[in-house]
Structure prediction request, 159 residues.
Amino acid sequence: MNNMNEFTGKKLGEVLAFCEVGEETFKMGVEALTEKLGAEFVTDYIERSNMYFESVKKFANDGGVGEVTMAKLESTGAKLRAMRDMYVGDQWHNATELLEWSGFFEGAAIVHFALVRGVAMELDNSDLLNLVNEAIDFHYQILEHAEGELESVGQDRAK
Prediction:
């Protein structure tokens, strides 16, 4: 499958960054997120983010764009961490703040995975397409869950 170009390698690197930073964020906010969402939810997020990371990395390496992908992972990861850290600040104990951040993060993950879906469609790579569709569904589920949790917070705090 050595038919991937530089654009593809970069897009794969971007989604790797979302996988890595998402997993890292849940680990850094594990206490607050576990209290709010439950241990199973947090563990599933971390495990699935890691699984998507390893799978996408394999596609990049198999496609001959591993170096481009890993370089883009580093630069995009740095941007995501800077945005996250500016937004969250010292509020790692505050699940509401972390869930508010997830609105930006999960939405951005979805659109970046959508670019890779387009790549998979153009390359007629059903394995990559299936993985990306699953990841997009996963991130939509996280976004919807965060939305519901935040709506409840709004109701509780408006009392």
Notes: The two ends are 58 Å apart (CA to CA). The chain has a mean pLDDT of 96. The CA atoms of residues 12 and 117 lie 10 Å apart. The chain is about 85% helix and 0% strand.
